[in-house]
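Justification of resources, computational component.

The compute hours requested in this renewal are based largely on the per-chain cost of generating structure records like the one below. Each record pairs the submitted sequence with a full structure-token output. That output is archived, and it is also reused by downstream analysis tasks.
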Amino acid sequence: MFNVQVFPGVKITNDLCLWMEDRGTLAVADLHIGLEAALEQTGIHIPRIQSATMKESLIRILDRYEPDTILILGDLKHEFSGNLDQEWRDVRDILSMLRDSATVKVAKGNHDNYLANISQRLGIEVADSFEVDGISFMHGHAQSKHRPLVIGHEHPSVRIFDRVGAYLKLPSFLHFEKEEILVLPAFSPLAAGTDFTNLGRADTMSPVLAEADIEDAKVYACTEIGLLALGTIRDLGQIRTF
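The structure output for this chain reads:
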């Protein structure tokens, strides 16, 4: 399957995005543009291909869904302490491309301290949260009592084991049905996913999950063959085969 309805009028998709067709609204989270440049400052050098890869993916979902509004749920950029040269160039390039196709709004994440220097020049709104049809959208690094709630921040993934112990690590949506919280996977291909199959409540980053039943979260993994409903975190902890 390629999409699943999690709230009325809200679908998650295998394209690592949320889609509200009636509102023409699409949401993604955690692009972490400039991660390669930040790693270079620590002595780790990898090819600067993340932004180009994400741009191709964004163009594909723009063509597929034709949204009127795009919500970016925080950590659009990576560096906390300023705007690296790569971030200036790549953030401006991606935001300009998106703005040419839809209204773009950014929910500020904990990595976005200096994003306003770029977004203001492009006329793009940056706020702590946005609301669409009674659903709150935010990054997730701050507390919120609003429900239903959609966040990023956690970079959720799960591990699926085979019979000899090898595993696949898959970016995943987490749906806390009882708590009315949805967590989006990171859109960045380089943002290491947090393995929720080996995570306790005390290990989550978002304060909105502090009281959530982590093991009861429903898992929807994004794969090359579509969106896979894998049951709950608890189920995955009990199964170590495909």
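Residues 50-65 form the longest helix (16 residues). The radius of gyration is 17 Å.
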